[in-house]
Amino acid sequence: MRKISVTMFMTLDGVVQGLGRPDEDTRGGFTHGGWGPRFNDDVMGQELSKGMAQAGDLLFGRRTWQDFANVWGRATDGNPFSALMNKATKYVVSRTLDDAGAWENSTLLRGDAVETVSALKETDGPDLAVNGSAALVRSLHAAGLVDDYTLLIHPLTLGTGARLFEHPAPLAEFELISSVATTKGVLIVRYRRAES
């Protein structure tokens, strides 16, 4: 059985919307896009490199997959993350996409997220890494399918924007595996689902 690991950049008040660019995600009139890059440093880069080195296949919701395909899929900058993202097998969960040909090595999982991802998780193969895709993560978490989280908690509050858990999440316990503070005040914490 495959493991599902989620990596999520978030603010102290739980906002996960529009991390990278002002135009990344303006749904709901969100005007704080691009809040994350000023907190990047070498410590964060090293910690993310560790996670990328262990990553297996990638799992996305439609919106994040489309955004990543536009940014990473066209990257020719020699960045090792670009090469890794493009080379990796990518699964995109969607009820509306017709195909996943817009980004190499992508496979469309059409239908209900919990059903399709649950079936994928039961197959043999590399573990699955989710980066972003908050709506997908909420559904997978509610179904008990997320095995661990890496949360990059940034030292700011935004007051508005989509949050990781916008509605109460079901009861689930996790144990702290590691924590690292960056030079710019970001806490990188790793939690694993506790054995019941």
Could you explain how this protein is built, in words?
A hairpin with a 5-residue loop joins strand 7 and strand 8 (187-193). It contains five helices and eight strands, in the order E-H-E-H-H-E-E-H-E-H-E-E-E. It has helices at residues 42-54, 62-71, 80-87, 113-121, 134-142, and strands at residues 4-11, 57-61, 90-94, 106-110, 128-131, 148-154, 174-181, 187-193. It has an eight-stranded mixed β-sheet with strand order 4-3-2-5-1-6-8-7, with helices on both faces. The model has no long low-confidence stretch (mean pLDDT 92). The protein has one domain (15-182): 3-Layer(aba) Sandwich (Dihydrofolate Reductase, subunit A), CATH 3.40.430. The chain is globular and about 40 Å long. It is α/β, with parallel strands linked by helices.
List keywords for this structure.
alpha/beta, Dihydrofolate Reductase, subunit A, 25% strand, globular, Riboflavin_Biosynth_HTPR, Dihydrofolate reductase family protein, DHFR-like_dom_sf, RibDG_C
State the end-to-end CA separation.
18 Å
CA-based gyration radius:
16 Å
Spell out the helices and strands N to C. Answer: EHEHHEEHEHEEE
Structural class: alpha/beta
Residue windows where pLDDT falls under 50 for at least 5 positions:
none
What assembly state would you assign to the polypeptide chains in this entry?
single chain
> What is the topology, as strand order, of the major beta sheet?
4-3-2-5-1-6-8-7
Query: Residue share in helices?
Result: 25-40%
> What number is the mean pLDDT?
92
β-strand amount: 25-35%
Total domain modules: 1
Number of strands: 8
CATH class term: Alpha Beta
- Architecture, according to CATH? 3-Layer(aba) Sandwich
Q: Tell me the CATH topology.
A: Dihydrofolate Reductase, subunit A
Q: Any idea what the CATH superfamily is called? A: Dihydrofolate Reductase, subunit A
How many helices? The count is 5
Overall form: globular
Largest sheet: 8 strands, mixed
